User: Fold this.
Amino acid sequence: MNSHILDLHGLRHHEVDIRIENFIFLNQEEFPLTIICGNSDKMISLASEILKKHGCKYDEGTGYDYGKIMVYKL
Assistant:
């Protein structure tokens, strides 16, 4: 899998924060980054909270791209 993509499928909600933080900090030279949350509103909400906490610029996907978050800047 591409190192610019983090797929959260199979993770428990309590595992998401550390996984996303590691992903964005370890790949901060490789923007844009993609986070795949799937159709879980809770997972999308958790991911968004973590990105906001770190002041990231990001967009949540809509329509066909629902469940995908693009991170553009840390």
User: Anything to note?
Assistant: The mean pLDDT is 94.
